[in-house]
Amino acid sequence: MFGRLAAKQVPNKEYAVVPGKVNPDLQRERKKCTFDTLELTHFLDGGVEKYKDRKERENFFLSDPELMDDVPPELMSHEDQYRNGLKKACYLFKKLKELRENGGTIDNYRQLLGGSLGSAILKDGNPLALHYVMFIPTLMGQGTPDQCAYWIEKAWDCRVIGTYAQTELGHGTFIRGLETTATYNPKTQQFFLNSPTLTSYKWWPGGLGQTANYAVVVAQLYTKGECHGIHPFIVQLRDEKTHRPMPGVIVGEIGPKLGMNATNNGFLAFKQVPIPRNQMLMKNAQVLPDGTYVKSPSNKLTYGTMMFVRVVIVQDMASYLAKAVTIAVRYSAVRRQSEMVPGQSEPQIMDYLTQMYKLFPYIATVYALKFSAQWLWNMYNDVTAKIDAGDLELLPELHSIACCLKAVSTADTATAIETCRLSCGGHGYMACSNLPTTYGNVTAASTYEGENTVMLLQTARALMKAYAKAQAGEQLSPTVEYLNRNRKFRPWSNTVDSIVEGFKQIAAGKVAACALSLQRGVESGLSSEEAWNRASVQLVDAAEAHCRAFITDRHLDMVRNGMNELSPALREVMAQLCDLYCVFWALKRTGDFLQFCGIRGEDVQNLQDYQNELLVQIRPNAVGLVDSFDLRDEIIGSALGSYDGQVYERLLQSAMLSPLNAKPVHDSYGASLSALLRAKY
Ligand SMILES: CC(C)(COP(=O)(O)OP(=O)(O)OC[C@H]1O[C@@H](n2cnc3c(N)ncnc32)[C@H](O)[C@@H]1OP(=O)(O)O)[C@@H](O)C(=O)NCCC(=O)NCCSC(=O)CCCC(=O)O
Ligand SMILES: Cc1cc2nc3c(=O)[nH]c(=O)nc-3n(C[C@H](O)[C@H](O)[C@H](O)COP(=O)(O)OP(=O)(O)OC[C@H]3O[C@@H](n4cnc5c(N)ncnc54)[C@H](O)[C@@H]3O)c2cc1C
Questions:
Q1: Is 384 in the pocket of ligand 1 (CB under 6 A)?
Q2: Topology at the third CATH level for domain 138-296
Q3: I want to staple 361 with a disulfide (CB 3.0 to 4.6 A). Which of 404, 460, 584, 588 is the partner?
Q4: In angstroms, rounded to a whole number, what is the distance separating the alpha carbons of residues 481 and 504?
Q5: Ligand 1, pocket-test mutation among 306, 307, 311, most atoms within 8 A of CB
Q6: pLDDT tens-digit profile of 309-322?
C-alpha cells in the first residue's frame, strides 16, 4: 500500500521492507498463544462458510491494483482526495455490480462501507457512501411499491446517484424545525421546493457537493395552505446528461473537515424547484392529486432510515476498533523502551502493566460491541417485519436501545482509538500509523445520525416512561425489565455476575433518582420542560448506565450461552475478556458501585487485584487475539500494525513518500530561506 515509488527512495537498501520477513518478537508472541486463532476467526465470521466468503470477497477487491493507493490520501490536496476517492468509488461500484449479478445482497454493500474492507479502499471517506447507506434504504423504507419498482432499480444500477439531505445550516438535531418547504400545487400536481432563509440551506449530506444528481430531501410539507410537518421527497439536483445543477438548484461542497475528506459533503438550496407529485415518498403519508393529505400511522416512521443507520453504526464501531487495537497491540509487541530492571534489556512496551491496561480492555470492547450489535440487528429485523405487518408496538423499545447503543458505542470507540494512538507514543501521531485517520472517521459518528447527548436523552425519555410503568406495576419490555419494582436485587459477591447485576442496580438507582428530580422540579414550580432541562445531566448519566447494563448483560450471556461449540481453551480466553470488560467499567464507576450496590473499600481492592490478574492472564494471548480479527495489511493500512511487524522499515519507507523529500534541496530554499540565511540585520 505504500507504493512503488517508495522502494526506490529508501536511503539504505538494507533498511527496506523485506517481503515475508517477520519481526522476531511477533514470532515469539504468536508461539505463546494458548488457543487456535483460526477457530476464533471462524467464530467471529459466523462459521467457516462465511469466513471463506469474506476471504474471497477481500481477495476480489484488495488484489485489484486499481483500488490501492500509490500515494496516501493525506499527501493529496482536498480536491485530489475527492478526485481519487470518486475514481475508486466508481470503479468499486462497477465491481460491486458484478458481485450483485452473482447474487450479492445489500450486506455486501454494507461490508464495503463500514470499518474494514471499505476503509482499506477509501481510507478517508467515500463520496458514494450515502447513496448506499441512506438513499437506497430510504427509497426501500419509505417508497410505495410503485415508487420502489421505479427508483430502486435505477439506484442499484447507479443510473441515478442519490444522497440524504436532511440537516440544514440552522438545524440538525431538531428536525421538526427544518425550514425547507415543499408546497403542493394541485393545478400542476407538483411540489415546489424552496429554501426561504440562509439557515434553511441543506448542509452536510455526503456526496451532495459534486457527486449526487438526486437526493431524498426532507422538507416541511404544505398542502391546502396547511403545514403537515417533515416528509421525504425525491428531488433531481443535476441534469442526467450534463451534470449541471437543475434550474433553481444551488449546490456545492462545504470544505475540508477533521476527517472524512473524500466524502464530498455538500450544501443545497432551492428556488421554487418543481417536482412531480409522485416524487413524495408515500409509503406512510400521502398527498392525493387534489391536495388532500392522508396521515401516516405514525409520524415517527419518517425517521426509519436514521434508525437503520444507527443500528449499522454499532457494527461499524466494532470493526474500526478491531483495526485500531490490532495496530496498537502489534506495535506494543515490537516496540522496546526503557529498563524495567536497571541494567537489563529493554522490555517490550506491552510488558508494562499500564500498557496492558491501555489496550486489553479495548480488545474486550470489540467483543462487547459486536455482541450488542448482533442483538440489535436481529431486533431491528424483527421489529421492521412487524411494522410492515402493521404492528408498531416494539418501535419505541427499538428506538430507545438503538439511540443509547449508538451513543455509547461511538463515544467508547473514539476514546479507545485515541488511547490506542497515545499508547503508540510519537509514532502514533504519524498519519502513516493510520490512527489519526481512523479517529477522524470514528469521532464523526458521535455527531452524525443523532448527536450523542441528544440520543442519550431520547433513551432517558423512554426510561422515565418505563419507570412510571414499573411504579404502576405494569408489564415492562425486556431491556427495562430490571426496573420492575418487585425485582429482588442480589447482594454483592465478588463475581462477574455480581458486576453485571450491579450495573442494573446502578441504572435502576439512577433512573429512580432522575424521576425524583423531575418530580421535585415540578413540585418546586418548574414546568415539566424546565424540570427536564434541570435534570438532564443526570438523565444522560442514567441512559449511559442503562446502556452499560445492557452491554455487560449481553456480553456475559454470550459467553455463558453462545459459545458452547468453542474449544475449552478458547472459551477460557473469551471469559477472561468478558470479565475484563466488566471489571474495567466497574472500576471506572467505583463511585456508582459504592453508592448503589453496597460494596465496600475492600471489594474495590479485590476488583483492582482481579483486573491486574486478568491483564496478566491475557498478556500471552494479546497478539493472537488481534491476529484472530484477521485484518489484512491493506485494511490495517498502518506502518505500525502490519502482520510482519517491520515497523521501522515501514516508517522510513512512508517518510520517503513525502514530496518534500523528492529533491536534495527544496525549491523553497531559493524562494525564502536563502535570503534569510544571508540577510544582515
Ligand atoms: C432528536 C429527535 C429524536 C427528536 O425528534 P422529535 O420529532 O422532535 O421528537 P420529540 O418531540 O422529542 O419526541 C420524541 C418522540 O418520538 C419518538 N421517536 C423519535 N425518533 C424516533 C425514531 N427514529 N423511531 C421511533 N420513534 C422515535 C420518541 O421515542 C418520542 O416518543 P414519545 O413522544 O416519548 O412517545 C429527532 O429530531 C432526531 O432524530 N434528531 C437527530 C437527527 C439525525 O439523526 N440526523 C441524521 C442526518 S443523516 C446523517 O447524519 C448521515 C451520516 C451518515 C454517514 O456519513 O455515514
Ligand atoms: C461527518 C458528518 C456527516 C454528515 N452527513 C449527513 C448527511 O449525509 N445528511 C444529513 O442530513 N446530515 C448529515 N450530517 C449532519 C448530522 O446529522 C448533524 O450534524 C447531527 O444530527 C447534529 O446536529 P447539529 O449539527 O445541528 O448539532 P446541534 O444539534 O446544533 O448540536 C450542538 C450541541 O447542542 C446540543 N443540543 C442540541 N439539541 C439539544 C437538546 N435537545 N438537548 C440537549 N442538548 C442539545 C448537542 O448535544 C450539542 O452539544 C453529517 C454530519 C457530520 C459531522
A1: no
A2: Butyryl-CoA Dehydrogenase, subunit A; domain 2 (2.40.110)
A3: 584
A4: 10
A5: 306
A6: 999 999 999 999 99
